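From: lab user (bench 3)
To: helpdesk
Subject: output format question, protein + DQA

Hello, I'm new to running complex predictions and I'm not sure whether the block I got back is the full result or only part of it. Here's what I submitted:
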Amino acid sequence: MKILTLHGINLNMFGKRDAKTYGTATLAEIDAELKAIGQTLGAEVECFQTNFEGAMAERIHQAYFEGVDAVLINAGAWTHYSYGIRDALAILKCPILEVHMSNVHARETFRHTSVFAEVVRGQICGFGTESYMAALRTAVSLVQKEAQ
Ligand code: DQA
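Helpdesk reply: Thanks, we reran it on our side. This is the complete output you should expect:
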């Protein structure tokens, strides 16, 4: 099983951003934990980060051709306004899980909207790095159940 984790704009700066909101883990640490948990669950986890919207769209197109089993995406601020990323995600046939470290619903109003909402299976937010780990476990279990 192959799970692709996509990290969007500014997420390479985790570890240096506001620690009260985002904790202190770096993106490299998050990716390492995802890969380690993936291994215990029998899933290969690949991680990709970019600050360029077109590069993110192209990585999503590539995921379509690779036939990945599930996608986890924390698109950062793009979540709230990028119809381009939303349309790219809509092309995929596999489950897509939206992830946020912070509880976006308890923050500024502009963060309450996800333009991805209609094209993802669901959203996990507010649990820091555990949002990613919960999304990975959920993705593996969805893929297993849907293969039955
Ligand atoms: C974020 C929440 C977004 O609103 C914000 O723009 C981010 C990070 C999160 O992980 O909590 O960059 O996606």
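A quick orientation on your result: Residues 3 and 45 are 5 Å apart (CA to CA). Let us know if anything else is unclear.
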